[in-house]
């Protein structure tokens, strides 16, 4: 075990390592949601204490925070502003505003706190990479147990943790069980340590893009195999598309300065232009098969997003409606503003909320892309951004941010790495 588990050198490394490796134990206690929501604040508090000299470190030893971290702070602060103004515009009371701000503190806020912690604390990339691979290996080994539970007729929910009464999200976040029966079909789906099956697929993709940069190739294989297995048994259509696209996109995005890749890209672009009608036909067919795999679900989601965009534009284009609303019968009463991060932001927080996420993601991508040509940490962070973009089309990232906390931590770790200039890379300069 000593050879598998990296030795931590700082308290923050120990916290990150053991929290990730202990995920399944936390799940068994129904404590995953609380632990994953609280630890970002703990890490940010430690980062603040270190940076400003409240612990033994010299505050002068820390370089200024990267601009990207400040952009995340600004974006998530504007999320809170949009939330409050949206509530006031629609006559919500102070209690409702306080509850919503509490939810913001466990969702949007940690998207800024974790990059700050990652950019300040002393956490080695390989400790993070090995920790997520250990969790991926555990998840792979536990999968047959979960399948067996469903096969022998165990109830989908074995018990609900009393920790739900402490406060936070709904009951489903504290349920412990082996499988999940989709209301729309008789299929059994595994939700692992997530509140629902597609959320498990999202969480495992986050781990995969980090685990891909472990120094040991065998652990990299574990990362990909585990991600494929989890997404298959979670029956997440979006993830089954996202994984191969991400695995192809990452080498391309991290090899933009390689002459051979440029040549291949040019040939591929020219070929695609000639074969555009065939490519378009194949794409349309793939989309049709994708939506046809679960017709009812695809129909409901499509109508839900149409309602969200229409009501955003007609009723609250700047600051949104402040909260999700129960949908009509045509969408099976699903909340308007759910199941899609971007349309949900428009409905709930308006254009201000939409830009508050779009701008930090765009800035992060542009900052990390040159670094990714040489730095594995930046490549992992770019991969995480791709995962966020893919899954934002089918999930509300805010409510699942706690599952993605290692990825947001990786963003900050990548931001603080020494910059690699584009022109220096083109000239073949060495770091």
> Would you identify the regions where 5 or more consecutive residues have pLDDT less than 50?
266-273, 278-288, 420-431
Helix content: 55-70%
Report the β-strand fraction as a percent range.
Answer: under 5%
Order of helices and strands: HHHHHHHEEEEHHHHHHEEHHHH
Radius of gyration: 22 Å
Mean pLDDT: 82
Large-scale geometry: globular
**SS-based structural class?**
mainly alpha
Query: Can you count the helices?
Result: 17
Number of strands: 6
The rounded distance between the terminal residues' Cα atoms is: 34 Å
Q: Sketch the major β-sheet.
A: 2 strands, antiparallel
Keywords:
single chain; 431 residues; mainly alpha; two-stranded antiparallel sheet; 17 helices; disordered C terminus
How would you sum up this structure, described in words?
The protein is mainly α and 431 residues long. The protein has helices at residues 11-21, 23-29, 32-51, 67-89, 94-106, 110-120, 125-151, 197-211, 217-234, 237-253, 259-274, 276-292, 295-315, 341-371, 376-391, 405-415, 422-426, and strands at 159-160, 175-176, 180-181, 188-189, 325-326, 335-336. The strands form three sheets. The chain has a two-stranded antiparallel ribbon with strand order 1-2. Helix 3 (32-51) packs across helix 6. The radius of gyration is 22 Å and the shape is globular.
Short structural summary:
With 431 residues, the chain is mostly helical.
Task: Give the SSE map.
Blueprint: H1 11-21, H2 23-29, H3 32-51, H4 67-89, H5 94-106, H6 110-120, H7 125-151, E1 159-160, E2 175-176, E3 180-181, E4 188-189, H8 197-211, H9 217-234, H10 237-253, H11 259-274, H12 276-292, H13 295-315, E5 325-326, E6 335-336, H14 341-371, H15 376-391, H16 405-415, H17 422-426
Antiparallel strand pairs: 1-2, 3-4, 5-6
Helix pairs in contact: 1-7, 3-6, 4-5, 4-6, 4-14, 6-16, 7-8, 7-9, 8-9, 8-10, 8-15, 9-10, 10-15, 13-14, 14-15, 15-16
